[in-house]
Each structure stands twice: as C-alpha cells, then as structure tokens.
Design goal:
3-stranded antiparallel beta sheet, 4 helices, about 140 residues, single chain
C-alpha cells in the first residue's frame, strides 16, 4: 500500500493504492479511522491525480480507475450502485436501496454511503434525502 496527499480545490485528500487499484480517497479530517499507508510513487496514484485534476477543472465527468474499496459485501453493493448515478444527477437513499434490491434498507444504505472509502470518485455526494435536501457529507457541509 502506498499513499499520497493530493492538494485539491476541496482541501487535502489522502489517496491510497494497493498497487493494482485505488482503495481509499479520504478528506483531511476523516470521519472513520483507516490505516494510513507509507507515502510513495505509484502508477494508480499518478492516474488518480491526473483524473482528479481534470474532474476539478470541469473536463472529466466519469472516472476510469481500478477501484478496490474495502468493506462488507452489503457496503460494496451500495458503493457499486453509487457508480451508476450519472454526473449531474441525484438519487434518494430509498432509490438507492431499491437499486440494490432492498427497498426497505434506505437507512442501511445511508450508513454504507457514509462509510464510502473512495469519496468523490465513488459519488456518494449524489445521494440526497427523500425531501431533496442534503443530509450530510464526509467532506463537510458548508453553511
């Protein structure tokens, strides 16, 4: 495992690669503990940084990176469903629960969403409350 800190327009992001895929993208003040990796150079991290640069410049809407988020099978299903939400679109937690075949699991989907280890790239920010409002975000909610 290798990590770098990427200075983004939303603050420093820690990126962690296992050498074959991106495992982690975390904001400066993580909500959940994770095991930091030693700093270093890595082709996955180089490509992630390149794509993030394009994304923040408004020139990239869909990431094309190998991902390996670590979590339970349920969490992985939720995170995989997040990847199907198009750029510029939103879904409710209920819609995401239905998308994974568990329409009554919107609270569990919300918890899994909150534990997304690859923020921004796995777009948990595209999921909103049933009233259309924001309910929280790991990167913070500006007032």
């Amino acid at each position: 495992m290798i990590s770098i800190v990427y200075d983004s327009p939303v603050g420093p992001l820690t990126l962690i690669s296992n050498g074959a895929a991106l495992e982690h993208l975390e904001f400066e003040n993580p909500r959940y503990a994770y095991n930091p990796a030693p700093a270093g150079k890595d082709k996955i991290l180089d490509e992630t940084r390149r794509q993030l640069d394009k994304y923040f410049a408004g020139k990239l809407k869909d990431f094309d990176l190998p991902l390996a988020p670590q979590g339970t099978e349920f969490q992985k299903r939720v995170w995989q469903a997040l990847l199907t939400i198009p750029y510029g679109a939103t879904r409710s937690y209920g819609q995401q629960a239905a998308a994974i075949g568990q329409p009554k699991a919107s609270r569990a989907v919300g918890l899994a969403n909150g534990r997304n280890p690859i923020s921004i790239i796995v777009p948990c920010h595209r999921v909103i409350g049933s009233n259309g409002g924001l309910t929280g975000y790991g990167g913070g909610m500006a007032q």
